[in-house]
Design goal:
- There is one protein chain.
- By secondary structure, this protein is of the alpha/beta class.
- It folds into two domains: 234 residues, Rossmann fold, CATH 3.40.50.300; 237 residues, P-loop containing nucleotide triphosphate hydrolases (Rossmann fold, 3-Layer(aba) Sandwich), CATH 3.40.50.300.
- It has 18 helices and 24 strands.
- The protein has a six-stranded mixed sheet, with helices on both faces.
- The radius of gyration is 23 Å and the shape is globular.
Length: 496
């Protein structure tokens, strides 16, 4: 039976220690949930196992035999395969080619393209997913590209499979398909390390759990010994009051209204109103039309029919800059490629939406951008050890989200459109973001959250509009909503 034993793992980057002697066991036929806030050491540990980093001290053994993992090739040779959140695909190659990348079947010296397609189709069928095999992956959405990443890893005969936030961009049906396949792999004797910020997944898929905090193991044992509250406390080192209700806000005047909006292939006759001072959630499975509607309200898509009113101005914004001038801010679902401006500092990212008012001769004023950062750092609890000049890409996902919120607050946005606002952030940052949204609503900002996370919309919303197949299937107050009703409504075709 496969058994991975990690003992006394230490790792520093420069003078900064990251791991302080951690122990981890992964056993064939069991799923180990690896939990912790961003920066706790999870990613460093699995990158050592995957051969991307070298440890400074400690031992790794597989089935009782010491191993030295110096490279990803070494890891693969002993049966360790890792699927990270960052896409490692070849964007211009097809789905089938990407799934078989590095393992293209050959007939003699030629690639056996029929076998490539057959292999790709087989693994996609196992995942319960239907993707066009000949389409370049650059034309796929985030969820579909994630599926291709998972499928490519599964083509290899992995003995230990590391999954880093595998469901962060998957719809509910796709998540269940993934879980079904993970259970099948577990039953076949594969050891699985499962990293997630979604604690509801832990009880559903994991057998064991290890919690990291500040580079050390804070808790470990069978998953049956922990509830969500205990896991959160272990992760953050204190009771953050996971069950505390956020303040609810009475609706004020209409801040944004859309009427009978049609977006071909996405939205079919949707009407809704967001009020100043409320958090309105648009809930549904990925592809339900809610995200596309939010993108259209920010001017990224054009209505095929319908009207939109923001404050006293009627008409869909002609583009993002028109939406910004109308007081709308937008956080996209893919923070890394569509949100943060890599290569720029934290301060420059906050000032970016207000560039025209902070620029001198076309260049952003360093003094103005620093002032903008300082204005919001304390209020949003932005952790940037190197201050305003720290490169945005070196910050955690939660702090990047806070900076993007600060970007729109600095601009003075009165309507915020937030797509999956806590995707890929840890539990502590998630709680902080929820409190920030509640505070902003209390100041009169209209907040529209697009989310496929039931727990999120139940936690943060004053009102919930449920989407199904491009139409509104239900509209519920927070008091009326529960998990069962939201799940039923997200699967319906008609308005209820």
């Amino acid at each position: 039976m496969f058994r991975l034993e990690v003992r006394g793992l230490y790792k520093s980057f420069g003078n900064v220690p990251v791991l302080h002697g951690v122990d981890v066991d992964a056993v064939g036929g069991r799923v180990l949930a690896l939990l912790g806030e961003n920066g706790a050491g999870k990613s460093t540990t699995v990158k050592i196992l995957a051969g991307d980093h070298r440890c400074d001290a400690g031992t790794i053994s597989v089935s009782g035999r010491p191993v030295d993992i110096r490279s990803p090739r070494d890891a693969e040779a002993i049966g360790i395969r890792a699927i990270f959140q960052e896409f490692l695909d070849a964007p211009q190659l097809s789905v089938a080619e990407n799934i078989c990348l590095g393992r293209l079947p050959r007939r003699g010296w030629r690639v056996d393209w029929r076998a490539v397609r057959r292999t790709a189709r087989t693994v996609l069928d196992q995942l319960g997913v239907d993707l066009p095999l000949d389409r370049p992956v650059e034309q796929l959405g985030v969820a579909q590209r994630q599926i291709v990443e998972i499928a490519r890893a599964l083509v290899a005969d992995a003995r230990l499979l590391i999954l880093d936030e595998p469901t962060s961009a998957l719809a509910a049906a796709e998540v269940e398909n993934l879980f079904r396949f993970v259970r099948r792999l577990r039953d076949d004797g594969v050891a699985i390390i499962y990293i997630t910020h979604r604690l509801d997944e832990v009880a559903e898929i994991a057998d064991d759990v290890v919690v990291f905090r500040d580079g050390r193991v804070a808790a470990a044992g069978p998953v049956t010994e922990f509830d969500q509250h205990a896991l959160v406390t272990a992760m953050v080192g204190q009771d953050i009051g996971a069950s505390i209700d956020l303040p609810r806000h009475p609706p004020a005047h209409a801040a944004l209204t859309v009427r009978d909006v049609h977006l071909a292939g996405h939205v079919d006759g949707v009407s809704l109103t967001a009020h100043a001072g409320e958090v309105l959630s648009l809930f549904g499975r990925l592809g339900c039309g809610a995200l596309e509607l939010a993108e259209a309200m920010f001017g990224l898509r054009r209505f095929d029919a319908g009207t939109m009113t923001v404050a006293d101005s009627t008409g869909q914004p002609a583009g993002p800059w028109a939406a910004i001038r109308a007081g709308i801010g937008f956080l996209p679902v893919d923070r890394k490629t569509q949100g943060v401006l890599n290569g720029l500092s934290a301060a420059e990212n906050i000032a970016a939406a207000d560039w025209s008012r902070k620029a001198r001769f076309g260049m952003l004023s360093p003094r103005a951008s620093r002032a903008a950062f300082q204005r919001w750092q304390e209020e949003l609890r932005i952790v940037a050890p190197k201050g305003a000049g720290q490169p945005i890409e070196t910050l955690s996902g939660g702090n990047q989200q806070k900076i993007m919120l600060g970007r729109w607050l600095e601009r003075g946005a009165t309507v915020l459109l937030l797509a999956e606002p806590t995707r890929g952030v840890d539990v502590g940052a998630r709680a902080e973001i929820y409190r920030i949204l509640s505070d902003l609503a209390g100041r009169g900002v209209a907040i529209i959250v697009v989310s496929s996370d039931i727990d999120e919309v139940l936690r943060v919303s004053d009102r919930i509009v449920v989407f199904s197949r491009g139409r509104v299937s239900a509209e519920l107050t927070r008091a009326e909503a529960d998990r069962a009703r939201l799940t039923r409504a997200a699967a319906m075709k008609e308005t209820v």
